[in-house]
Amino acid sequence: MPDPQKKIEALIASLEELRLHVGKKDLSVGSRNINSQLFFSLANACLRNRAVLLYGGMGANKTTLINLLGTSFLSLGLGDVENLMVTGHPEQTEEKMVGFLDPRQWTRPGSTAVEVLWTLWARSRWKLINEINRFPSGKQNLFLEILQKRKISYAGQVLEPGDTCYFATMNPEFSATYPLDEGLSDRVRQDLRDFCRAMAFLLHQDGNLEVLKAVAPYVIWHRVTPIRSALDSPPYYGARKLAFVSGLVERSINRTLNERAEMNLVFSRAVDGEMALDLALRELSAYDDPIARLDFIPSLEQMLCR
């Protein structure tokens, strides 16, 4: 069978040669520099039931990149892949995006079941939501619900498209856009794990600390709202949110490896069954650290109650 990594490498080379995506090699993973927009899109295409958000101004070829990747991963023509996306605007209806009732059902004698004609986007396993921040929050929540439940509901009918790759594009927040209603949750932990593994696969290396440092800011930046005074200060000047979050990630990882080393060891030994849970709880209670109080101790208490 063809080596998937070699096929992906050939695809990367082709895209870079054609220069059909705009952007410099702005993501450093150890000593290697790569284009973040391209590699995160490829990582998401290698995963299932995950989503990637491409952020950038108009003309950055975000949509074109996703559609070109779709032609390779789906073995479809560009026109067919372009039909597998919905584009945001406030008046976009659920019927145009998801599906609508088949009017022919009421002319059939004895027909009682409700029949829905699902759109190509709904039935596809490659879903692109173009300019997601032009959808109001209610419709944004529709997409988040689909991603969470992995099924689409309409008029009492349910469609399960199966394992799906989700992509979304987002332009800068102009006056005609709506903020994304996201926040940090346990899903961040899952996304960090999965995208680190996918990125390590693409780069032919282990999912080590270098990969985590590179991936984490991109997973977190759009889900947090920094303190304005901190973000407005040099060297960020209110415009370099990703760099600001990258600094937070760097400090957090360094503190975890240094100041929290003993605390992390106690927790990991308890989880692995190498230390009694009640003993680990007593030792962790001695640490004046929010990670111990709000994360480690509640997790071990839940294990103790099982």
Radius of gyration, CA atoms, in whole angstroms:
23 Å
CATH A-level architecture of the domain at 4-101 and 112-181: 3-Layer(aba) Sandwich
Residue-averaged pLDDT, rounded? 87
Judging from the principal axes of the Cα atoms, what is the shape? Answer: globular
Helical stretch tally: 14
Strand order of the largest sheet: 3-10-7-4
Order of helices and strands: HEEHEHHEHEEHEHEEEHHHHHHH
Distance between the termini: 45 Å
Q: Which CATH first-tier class of the domain at 4-101 and 112-181 would you pick?
A: Alpha Beta
CATH superfamily of the domain at 4-101 and 112-181: P-loop containing nucleotide triphosphate hydrolases
**Strand percentage, roughly?**
5-15%
If you consult CATH, what is the topology of the domain at 4-101 and 112-181?
A: Rossmann fold
Roughly what percent helix? 40-55%
- Biggest sheet descriptor: 4 strands, parallel
Number of distinct beta strands? 10
**Uncertain segments of ≥5 residues (pLDDT<50)?**
none
Structural class: alpha/beta
